[in-house]
Amino acid sequence: MAHVKQKWQVFDMKKWNDSAQMILIAGFAIGIGIVVLTVMLNNIIYASNTASEANIETNVFDFSNTVKVTTQAYEKAYDNGSIDNSYISNYTSKMAMSHAIAGFIFTLDNDPLQEPYFTQNGLRSGDPDWVVVERINQTERLELVINTSSLGDASNCFVVEALNQSGSMFWSARIFNSSGTHYVNVTNSTDILRTYDIGSGSPSLNITNNTPINFYFDTPTSGEQYRIRFINGDNASGTFTLSGNLSNGQPFEIRRYHVLNTTMSLNKNGHLELNVTIPVTLPRGQL
Amino acid sequence: MSMGTRKGRHDPLKSNQSAQLHTLEALMALLLVIGVIIYTVQATSLTPLTSSTANAHIEAQLQILGQDMLNSLDHSEYGQDSPLKQDILNWNGKYYTWDSQQYRSKSGENLTNSSIAEVLRSVAVGRGIAHNVEFAWIEEGGTMRSMPYIYNGEPSDNAVVITKRVLLSDSDFPEMNSTSFRQNSGIRDADQSTDLYNLIDVKLTLWRM
């Protein structure tokens, strides 16, 4: 019995030895597996970090620079109500050569000039309520030429207003169509100072020169720091000129007589990197 | 009985040997598991310390810094010419080198009234970032020509180049007279039949020494 017991014990120990070795081998396998997975994961993280850090997105700056330079080119090419096509053609050629060195194909095209609206970008679909100039110290010239056929009614009138530093309106000119007659209402913060029939067609309103009526603009704006805002600019089309000095002493000038859509594209390796159509107000329609 | 008992008597030495082997195996397994855990924890901190990762990170920083500098120089306020454009129009064709106090030409002339120099002095020089500024343009034959404006040596392999285009027109020059500018800088009027003068690429090169 003792001998049988011993043999059984020996057999049991051998079985436990095998199990221990199996466990050890399994431990080795798990350890090696964890190491391999960790190294692979580290390599993936490292490679992706290196790739993302090494490839800072600079194209957006190149594209904005291209748009800005092209806008300047159209402002320079604008002359007396028309575009100097030779200028644009030569400009396009120079830009194409400059971009070709970097592997880009540059193309530029534009639509005909059209009459602008008093929106922020000059198109009827542009932002109708916008601040034209801020921190004005003195306005030397504010003149509008309104196309009366585009005017809205009194409830959606086109408004030119001056606001003080706290944002309160202290002067405004409201231009609208009332049953076929076109009016301008000059107001202060509380009262209507003057109502005038501006006629039809394209009447000129020189606010600083008080032509054709007294617009009561000089007195309330004198010594004040203010901003000029357009409201419902999509309800009126026409041209305007605004110039003067800012509170920091710098002069400013905005002249908007036309607007045109220009389309520029940058193509690299058959892939369109930039394809944008932007409106350009001319000759200098925005600060 | 006694013989069987003596033969079947439990051998403590054999049992000790098995137990010791088991203990040794357990210790080895434990060491293995601990080693794996330590390696796993330490491995994640290894990659940022490699030199190639550090280089890519520095290049990215320089790229952003240079882009910000040129963006601020190219900003034009209230319809005026940008400081970058004014520096090009005022350029006398010489190149200047930083001598630890100011930018000086070969002939000893100091670079004054330059927004580019002011920005580089306050941003790049203070951080020990070496820099070059070049003006490049397309010649009549279609070749690109460049001239240095600020030159501080040959850039290293991990240098970054940031470019801005500036449009020059005849009307940008005083009284539309570009004669002295052309003679000093070598930048020709690319189109004498229109107001277009030329298109200048301003290239800013930054690198760490």
Main attributes?
heterodimer, A: alpha+beta, Jelly Rolls, 3 domains, two-stranded antiparallel ribbon, 4 helices, B: 209 residues, alpha+beta, 2 domains, 6 helices, 6 strands
Structure description:
The complex is a heterodimer of chains A (287) and B (209). With 287 residues, chain A is an alpha+beta fold. Chain A has three domains: 1-50; 59-110 and 260-284; 130-249, Jelly Rolls. Helix content of chain A is 32%, strand content 38%. Chain A has helices at residues 2-54, 59-77, 85-100, 218-221, and strands at residues 78-79, 82-83, 105-110, 130-147, 158-163, 169-178, 181-188, 192-197, 204-206, 226-231, 237-246, 251-268, 271-284. In chain A, the strands form two sheets. In chain A, strands 3, 4, 5, 6, 7, 8, 9, 10, 11, 12 and 13 form an eleven-stranded antiparallel β-sheet that branches. Chain A has a two-stranded antiparallel sheet with strand order 1-2. The longest helix of chain A has 53 residues, at 2-54. The mean pLDDT of chain A is 87. By secondary structure, chain B is of the alpha+beta class. Chain B folds into two domains: 11-43; 58-208, no CATH class. Helices cover 41% and strands 22% of the residues of chain B. Chain B has six helices and six strands. Chain B has helices spanning 2-7, 12-43, 51-73, 83-89, 115-125, 179-185, and strands at residues 96-98, 103-105, 129-138, 144-150, 160-169, 196-208. In chain B, the strands form two sheets. Chain B has a four-stranded antiparallel β-sheet. A two-stranded antiparallel sheet of chain B has the order 1-2. The radius of gyration of chain B is 35 Å and the shape is elongated. Classes of the chains: A alpha+beta (287), B alpha+beta (209). The interface between A and B is large, with 55 and 57 residues.
Blueprint of the fold:
The complex is a heterodimer of chains A (287) and B (209).
Chain A: H1 2-54, H2 59-77, E1 78-79, E2 82-83, H3 85-100, E3 105-110, E4 130-147, E5 158-163, E6 169-178, E7 181-188, E8 192-197, E9 204-206, H4 218-221, E10 226-231, E11 237-246, E12 251-268, E13 271-284
Antiparallel strand pairs in A: 1-2, 3-12, 4-9, 4-10, 4-11, 5-6, 5-10, 6-7, 7-8, 11-12, 12-13
Helix pairs in contact in A: 2-3
Chain B: H1 2-7, H2 12-43, H3 51-73, H4 83-89, E1 96-98, E2 103-105, H5 115-125, E3 129-138, E4 144-150, E5 160-169, H6 179-185, E6 196-208
Antiparallel strand pairs in B: 1-2, 3-4, 3-6, 5-6
